[in-house]
Inverse folding.
């Protein structure tokens, strides 16, 4: 048998986060990683270094498959911890990222997660209103952490968002929040959305510096 | 809702062989929304219907219904067999209707098997003369009745488009008008069938009888049968092959609203719900303990290693021509390959299902039944009823690909046990997709070891081949078809090569496992065609020969039909040995198919762009159906070769659960396909399976020319880690 | 729990477990059997219906989700696009076993309702969620093109 090399390992290695033991089991309801709180970075005296370190912590969330899977740079969402191409092969279709006529994201994904009963494989179908891909310009898969950081700050690629808008997206957006409530059988993103929001704010407050 | 309530009366015979009755079918509403199109029959009874034999019914409303003894699961047998009857009757295609014959081996045996059943691509071949004679008999009786009515000699009567005419006197009558009178005519003993040159419908693309009903949701499958007070049952099956139920706790399941009953059966634990969802929830709440002492605990990797080791030996002798080992030793060049084929599930669209209704002293069953005689017997035995008290209605089946033809009738047994444990009333047993994928009856895991030798001129001198695989037939009623301990389904297609190789040895290493195995569309050819056709391709390449010319040079007069399809397909594809083009030819089920695949490398995975296919299946009764079967056979074979494996993990549990982990070919992966049918007057041969064997080796050969990489392990695309 | 929604233009009220997938409500309660069960996890599309005008896999749609919504099944298809699709299906005998084709027709209809002249790629994208084990894909593509041409008039 030939098995696929876990795509997650490749992807995470590619972005500089070496997660060689990327978990493939999808049964845990807690994240395989914890998320540090802002205060844990207080000991870094240099503000720029602190900012960079805070982004490094944020990247644990950003590069988690729960977030990355819907931030592809191509037209195909990914799924699972191994970040394999979504099956069935739904596509972005247009910039709105809601899928093609006849096969929308909403053809399968509803307003809430739906637990499946009495089956042996997938335990739930994830859902949220709305449910769609991030725009292509905000695609992350295959980018390094510094590249993601630069993209996040670039109004030409981030949907013309200010840093305050980015904080709001990270801290308040419901679809982002789904990453911590992903439904049965799916590992949530590390920490909490509130903690992630605080890290984002602290990163902004320290000058929003990017790692190199 | 009652479905087919009159079916028994409709179909029941009164005599042995010929059924001429008073209570007979008719299709009063048969015109339906499709207008004057051939269609599926309804089951209404109209008096005065003419029933010349077990297969043909002519109703006063002019509809002609053909009783089809084979299950219709997509291969087009309803249309094909109806065409033969219409042809011989000189009926109008629009007046034709088709429906399933009842389970009755005395009337409806497959003449290739001796029992009623469908398989081995035999529906058309075994029915060809039978259905033509049935139609010819009906025509002769209608003509006799008309001769009486018109008071003219029968020889002066002509029949065309369902109208019986006497030109000289200007008299005519439609079939329906003659139905009652024709019922009084003695059936001819040996009715004369047409000369092939006079065929009007055979050889044309008559529209299929079931396309409309299958496009508007009205076609009725087993899943669609609902009976009053019916319960839906699901069974908790063992987690490993060979495990048995030790104990279970139904406490939680029985608390779920709608769950009415839980019973242990020999296959596991049956949960009965007032509706499907209750059964699903109830089943999920069962706690079961299993005895795994007799279970398969090896992983696929371990099994592959065991099989590969066995394939290093010679196995039981199947073919021994010349002296392959000596020739190998003397060869100028040798070539060796080990090919690994995984277990494959059939996964027909409609999961296995059946409805069993137990009444006071009889039972009625609805099922997309493929082996009626065996399943009928199994139902009767488990239910403890004489077979004539058990009515088995064969429903349209949502695909099979071999899955519904089991020697042990395991699904019939399970359905009967589950129904019996419930008692009087109707019970629908439904397998979910997970039951299907994890439920065994797989295409056997197989390893081929092949050694070839070439002389200094590049001519093939030796072919030494061992196949390690489980027997499909051993331990089942089909074992009687084995001779000298050999199961031909293990090696068919590799036993005799279509190529002149002076020294050829084939052996079979019979492997054992509690994993149940079964025929999977084209059976042994699923792996033997791959082995033979990729190996010959590589040997020819080693000898510096073109894949087409090299094959043709090794074919003799006996391979004229193989050579013809090969030449035809090479012409169609404009073959010049292009990179990315690969071909294969295989004879299976007495049909000859050659295919050329054009393959691209897409991110390291093969993508099949085009397939050209030439087929020789004798008389092409319905070319459109034949093309459809080739297209479907190619898609089915390609999907499995590219993407599919059922694997057992450490401890022996199946790692796939549903179509998320057992990947299906989807529309974007379907190649364009062009099919050409060789003109022939030979009796028709099978088309349901023969399209499948050549596609995988054609793709592998194309990939090798494109990338230099041999596909020695299937599937071609690595399966996702599970 | 009672749930009211519109099916094929008719208001229907069902009293079922609110988690029951719409698929089983349509089939077991309303006896609309054209919508099929294939996988139960939104992989195959055999259970496709139209929900408020777009395709929806009824096997992963709790019936509570369709309270007040409009559902169309194969039995209720009436649009010109639907008729063109079904006629094209019959015209080249697309179905083999036929079990998946209610779902295929639902998806193809939604495609043409949203995109009257689809390319091969558009068709592949729209139909990617509908599995056909008989592999009638080749003809599905052809029939959708035919239907689109018919609608052009």
């Amino acid at each position: 048998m030939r098995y696929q090399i876990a795509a997650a390992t490749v992807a995470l290695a590619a972005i500089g986060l070496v997660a060689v033991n990327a978990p493939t089991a999808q049964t845990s309801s807690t994240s395989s990683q914890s998320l540090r709180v802002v205060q844990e970075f207080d000991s870094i005296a240099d503000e720029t270094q602190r900012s960079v370190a805070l982004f490094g912590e944020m990247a644990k969330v950003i590069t988690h498959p729960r977030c990355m899977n819907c931030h592809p740079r191509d037209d195909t969402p990914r799924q699972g911890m191994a970040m394999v191409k979504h099956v069935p092969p739904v596509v972005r279709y247009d910039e709105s990222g809601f899928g093609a006529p006849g096969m929308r994201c909403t053809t399968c994904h509803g307003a809430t997660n739906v637990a499946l009963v009495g089956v042996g494989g997938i335990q739930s179908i994830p859902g949220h209103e709305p449910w769609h891909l991030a725009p292509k310009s905000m695609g992350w898969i295959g980018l390094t952490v510094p590249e993601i950081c630069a993209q996040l700050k670039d109004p030409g690629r981030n949907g013309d968002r200010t840093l305050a808008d980015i904080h709001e997206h990270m801290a308040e957006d419901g679809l982002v929040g789904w990453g911590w409530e992903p439904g049965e059988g799916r590992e949530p993103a590390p920490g909490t959305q509130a903690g992630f929001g605080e890290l984002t704010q602290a990163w902004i407050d320290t000058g929003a510096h990017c790692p190199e | 809702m009652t479905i087919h309530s009159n079916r028994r009366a409709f179909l029941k015979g009164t005599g042995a062989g010929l059924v001429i009755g008073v209570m007979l079918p008719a299709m009063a509403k048969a015109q339906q929304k499709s207008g004057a199109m051939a269609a599926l029959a309804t089951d209404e009874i109209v008096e005065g219907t003419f029933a010349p034999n077990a297969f043909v019914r002519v109703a006063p409303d002019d509809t002609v219904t053909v009783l089809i003894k084979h299950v219709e699961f997509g291969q087009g047998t309803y249309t094909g067999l109806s065409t033969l009857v219409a042809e011989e009757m000189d009926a109008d295609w629009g007046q034709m209707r088709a429906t399933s014959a009842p389970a009755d081996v005395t009337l409806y045996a497959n003449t290739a098997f001796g029992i009623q059943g469908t398989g081995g691509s035999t529906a058309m071949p075994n029915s060809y003369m039978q259905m033509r004679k049935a139609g010819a008999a009906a025509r002769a009786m209608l003509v006799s009745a008309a001769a009486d009515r018109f008071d003219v000699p029968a020889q002066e009567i002509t029949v065309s488009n369902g109208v019986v005419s006497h030109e000289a006197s200007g008299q005519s009558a439609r079939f329906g008008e003659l139905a009652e009178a024709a019922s009084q005519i003695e059936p001819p003993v040996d009715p004369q069938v047409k000369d092939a040159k006079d065929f009007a419908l055979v050889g044309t693309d008559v529209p299929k009888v079931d396309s409309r009903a299958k496009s508007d949701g009205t076609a009725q499958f087993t899943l669609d049968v609902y009976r009053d007070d019916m319960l839906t049952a699901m069974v908790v099956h063992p987690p490993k092959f060979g495990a048995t139920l030790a104990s279970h706790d139904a406490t939680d399941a029985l608390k779920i609203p709608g769950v009415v009953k839980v019973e242990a059966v020999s296959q596991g634990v049956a949960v009965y719900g007032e509706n499907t969802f209750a059964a699903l929830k109830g089943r999920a709440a069962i706690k079961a303990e299993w005895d795994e002492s007799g279970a398969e605990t090896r992983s696929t990797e371990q099994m592959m290693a065991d099989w590969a080791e066995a394939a290093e030996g010679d196995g039981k002798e199947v073919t021994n021509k010349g002296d392959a080992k000596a020739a190998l030793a003397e060869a100028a060049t040798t070539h060796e390959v080990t090919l690994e084929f995984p277990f494959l599930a059939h996964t027909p669209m409609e999961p296995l299902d059946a409805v069993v209704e137990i009444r006071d002293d009889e039972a009625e069953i609805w099922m997309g039944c493929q082996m009626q005689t065996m399943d009928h017997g199994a139902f009767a035995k488990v239910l403890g009823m004489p077979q004539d008290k058990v009515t088995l209605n064969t429903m349209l089946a949502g695909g099979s690909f071999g899955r519904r033809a089991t020697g042990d009738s395991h699904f019939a047994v399970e359905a009967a046990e589950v129904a019996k444990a419930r008692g009087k009333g109707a019970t629908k047993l439904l397998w979910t997709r997970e039951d299907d994928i994890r439920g065994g009856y797989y295409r056997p895991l197989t390893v081929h070891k092949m050694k070839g030798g070439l002389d200094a001129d590049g001519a093939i001198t030796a072919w030494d081949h061992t196949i390690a695989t489980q027997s499909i037939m051993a331990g089942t009623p089909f074992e009687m078809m084995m001779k000298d301990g050999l199961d031909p389904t293990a090696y068919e297609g590799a036993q005799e090569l279509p190529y002149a190789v002076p020294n050829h040895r084939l052996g079979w290493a019979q492997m054992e496992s509690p994993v149940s195995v079964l025929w999977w569309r084209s059976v042994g050819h699923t792996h033997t065609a791959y082995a033979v056709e990729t190996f010959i391709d590589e040997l020819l390449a080693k000898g510096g020969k073109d894949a087409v010319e090299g094959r043709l040079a090794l074919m003799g007069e006996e391979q004229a039909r193989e050579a013809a399809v090969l030449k035809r397909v090479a012409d169609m594809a404009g073959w010049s040995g292009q990179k990315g083009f690969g071909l294969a030819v295989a004879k299976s089920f007495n049909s000859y198919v050659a295919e050329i695949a054009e393959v691209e490398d897409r991110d390291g995975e093969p993508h099949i762009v085009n397939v050209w296919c030439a087929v020789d299946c004798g008389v092409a009764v319905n070319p459109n159906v034949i093309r459809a079967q080739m297209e479907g056979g190619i898609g089915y074979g390609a999907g499995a070769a590219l993407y599919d494996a059922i694997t057992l993990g450490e401890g022996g549990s199946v790692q796939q659960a549903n179509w998320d982990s057992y990947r299906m070919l989807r529309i974007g992966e379907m190649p364009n396909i062009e099919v050409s049918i060789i003109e022939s007057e030979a009796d028709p041969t099978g088309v349901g399976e023969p399209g499948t064997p050549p596609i995988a080796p054609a793709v592998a050969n194309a990939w090798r020319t494109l990338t230099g990489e041999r596909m020695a392990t299937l599937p071609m695309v690595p399966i996702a880690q599970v | 729990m009672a749930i009211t929604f519109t099916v094929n233009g008719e208001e229907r009220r069902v009293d079922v477990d609110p988690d029951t997938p719409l698929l089983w409500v349509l089939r077991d309660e309303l006896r609309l059997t054209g919508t099929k069960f294939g996988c139960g996890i939104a992989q195959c599309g055999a259970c496709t219906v139209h929900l408020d005008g777009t395709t929806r896999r009824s096997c992963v749609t709790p019936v509570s989700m369709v309270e007040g919504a409009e559902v169309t099944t194969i039995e209720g298809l009436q649009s010109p696009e639907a008729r063109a699709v079904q006629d094209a299906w019959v015209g080249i005998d697309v179905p083999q076993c036929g079990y998946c084709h209610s779902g295929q027709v639902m998806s193809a209809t939604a495609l043409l309702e949203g995109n009257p002249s689809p390319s091969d790629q558009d068709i592949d994208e729209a139909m990617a969620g509908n599995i056909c084990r008989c592999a009638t894909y080749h003809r599905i593509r052809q029939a959708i093109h035919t239907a689109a041409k018919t609608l052009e008039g």
